[in-house]
Design brief:
Length: about 240
């Protein structure tokens, strides 16, 4: 009987051990899946393993900025995700109401996850300048305030150089060929990226949820008016970590 009890106890221990191993494997698999999901959103890699890069752009009301990036077909890369929110102010985790008061210093922005390196980033900036007026300081149409500033927040020297080259190209074309903007000088700021604060969920993809929602963006440029001089190193470079 004693021998039988020992064999039964041994069998129970083996079953428990195997169950624990299965439990650990299950948790490990869940963690790996969660990690891959986080990477695909937060700047790691997309589903095919291509590194994601980040751009952050302010072009007035962020509803329209998000819409114009989500709905555009790019040639040199892909838009993986777009989130609207705030950047550049002094208040931590500001609310929409606080930002609209003009007291926090934040700008309404779209944070864009993309693939395609410098060539894609340059194409994105040309698109950015095509659907908003970069000559009106802290204003887009009827929207006035510092939160509506035209701003390119850069994550690297590569992004800064591409931004400056794009602005120079646009300004040169405006000087030589004319334009449809309100003023004669590009007022877009190029600033270092800071902490991004996502807006509340109701404002994410707002115009997709509210088809008749307010949007004052429109196309000012149908075709980019001039050449942009970029070195091959910038064109091929990954623009952000």
């Amino acid at each position: 009987k004693k021998k039988g009890r020992n064999l039964l106890l041994l069998a129970v221990l083996i079953v428990r051990s195997k169950a624990f191993d299965i439990f650990k494997m299950g948790n490990k698999g869940s963690s790996a899946t969660a990690s891959r999901k986080d990477d695909s959103i937060n700047g790691g890699k997309d589903d095919s393993g291509i590194p994601l890069e980040t751009a952050c752009l302010g072009a007035g009301c962020y509803w329209g900025t998000e819409k114009f990036f989500r709905n555009h077909n790019f040639e040199n890369g892909s838009i993986v995700d777009v989130k609207v929110g705030f950047m550049g102010g002094t208040t931590k985790n500001p609310s929409y109401r606080q930002v609209c008061s003009g007291t926090t210093g934040h700008v309404e922005v779209a944070e864009i996850k993309f693939t395609g390196g410098g060539k894609m980033y340059g194409e994105m900036l040309r698109h950015f300048f095509s659907f908003h007026d970069p000559t009106t300081l802290d204003q887009q149409g009827n929207d006035r305030g510092t939160q509506y500033a035209s701003v390119i927040f850069t994550y690297s020297d590569v992004q800064r150089q591409i931004a400056q080259a794009t602005i120079s190209s646009l300004q040169k074309s405006m000087n030589e060929k004319g334009h449809q903007f309100r003023s004669n000088k590009v007022a877009t700021q190029v600033r270092d990226a800071e902490k991004f604060y996502p807006a509340h969920e109701e404002h994410q993809q707002y115009l997709a949820k509210n088809r008749g929602g307010y949007c004052n963006h429109k196309f000012y440029i149908s075709k980019w008016p001039g050449d942009i001089e970029l070195s091959p190193d910038l064109v091929e470079a990954q623009t952000s970590a």
